[in-house]
Design a protein that fits this description.
By secondary structure, the protein is mainly beta. About 0% of the residues lie in helices and about 65% in strands. It has a single domain, classed as Immunoglobulin-like.
Amino acid sequence: MHSKPQLLAWLTCDGVHIDPGSGKHTILGIFSNIQARQFPVTHPFMIWFLTISDCAPGQHKLKIAMGLDATNPQPLLERPFESQSPLHRINLINEIRNLSFPQPGEYSLIIEIDDEPILATSMTVSG
């Protein structure tokens, strides 16, 4: 029996700096919504920063999907990561480039680890 991975942090931000000496993460420009003058709009660059714990040792797969229709989000990102121990906190820095929003609205985001949903949230895009 393995425990389900726990999501400790989910942030949308402009950047993450990792101090080479201490390994500490500095999060730059946290935001939760996007404003645009016209649509469709393409956001040039953002980072989705996640901290996960309780992951069984070994290889895992992170998937993030997004869409205006919460029942049919489109896959956006899929990446492998490794866990050394369930006690470890794993920071995943996901660079999202040129993300397009066809119209204003509440965009649903679904975050999964190994095909298990661990977070359903949304991002507001307004005109």
